[in-house]
Amino acid sequence: MPDQGDSMMGPALARRDQRDHNERLLLTALSRLGAAPGAELARLTGLSAQTVSVILRGLEADGLVARGAPQRGRVGKPSVPMELAPDGAFSVGLKIGRRSADLVLMDLQGGVRGQVQTAYRYPLPDVVFGFLETALARLVAGLPRTAQDRLCGLGLALPFELWRWEHEIGAPPKGLDAWRDLDPGAEVAARTGLEAVVVNDATAACRAEAMLGRGPGFTDWAYLYVGSFIGGGVALGGSVFDGPHRNAGAFGAMQSRTPDGRAAPLVETASLYLLENAITEAGGDPSQLWTGSRDWSTFEAQLAPWIAGTGEAIARAMVSACAVIDFEAVVVDGAVPPAVRARLVARVREVLPDLDMRGLVVPAVVEGRVGETARAVGAAWAPLAARYLSVL
Description:
By secondary structure, this protein is α/β, with parallel strands linked by helices.
C-alpha cells in the first residue's frame, strides 16, 4: 500500500506534466506564428483564455516570452501580442561536413548570433572537436554573462556512418575509422559540458527549412540538400519526420543512373564531390567550392554539365519519391551559391514534366530559403526544440 507521500505525488506530477505540455504548446505556436495576442493563441491551441493568460504570465516571468507593441482595433482595449524573447534561451549547432565544419550560436527566435567555420581535407575527430572547443569559447564570450547561463545545449549534425565514405571524401584507407567506435554526443559533452542532441545532417537542414524557410508554405514536402553528398528530409503535416532510425528522407540511397547508363545511387550522380572531381581533373582548384568567394563562374565549363546531370538525377528520384508519398512540393537547397541553386531548380523543373508521371501529380519545385548554413542552423534548433517545444 503506498504511503501518503506517494499518494499525493502522482496528481502533483500529473499537473506539472500538463503544465509543461501547455507551455510547450504555446511556445510552439509562438515559434510558428511570431507575435500573437492571447486570444489568438487560445483559439489556435484550444486552451481557455484564462489558461493561456496564466501560462503566458509565467513564461514572461521566466524570460521566455516578451510583450510586443499594443495593437489597437476599432473598439475595446488594445491587444497586446506576445512573442518569444530572443534572449530567453540560446543553443549552439555544430555541422560536421566532409570538407568543413560550422558552429553557429542561435537565440530562441531562431536568430543566428554568430558563426565560425573551418575547412579541412577530410574530417578527423581531434580536428573537428578541437575546433568546437575553440570556436565555442569565442561565440559564448560574445554573450552577456546573464545570457551565457541560458545556453541550453548543443545540436550536432553529421552524416551517419561517416567512415563508409573515405574513398569519395579522398581520405586514405581507414583514415576515418576513428569515427567508427566514437560516440559523438558523449565526446561533445566531455569537451564542452553541454548536453548534445545528435541528428543526421540532411535532416537537420530539412528542419531549418521547416523552421525558417519554405516550411510554413507547405504541409507535405520532400527536401533535397546538395552538399558534398546529396541528402534530404521529409516533412509531413508541417513537421519534419525523422523515422524510427532518424534517417527518413535518405534520398541519396535512391537508385539513379550515371551519364553512361550505369546503375548507381543518387549520391553518386547528384553530389558536389562530382563537381570537385571534375574541376580537379581539368587542372583547376576546387577549394573555392568550400571556402572563399561564392562566385563559381571561374569553372563554368565543369559547372554547367554538373547542373544538367544533377538536375536530371534529382527529377528522376523525385518521381519515385512522389510514388510513395503524395508530396505537394520538392524543396531544393544546398551548399551552393544562390545563383547556382536557381539554375539547379530550373533544370529540375525542365526535366520533370517530360518524365513518366502517370498516376502522379507533378509537385511544385522550389528553392530552399536557408542556404548553405541550413545543416548548422537545424542542428542549433534541435536543443531549443527538445527543451521548449512540442515537436522538433
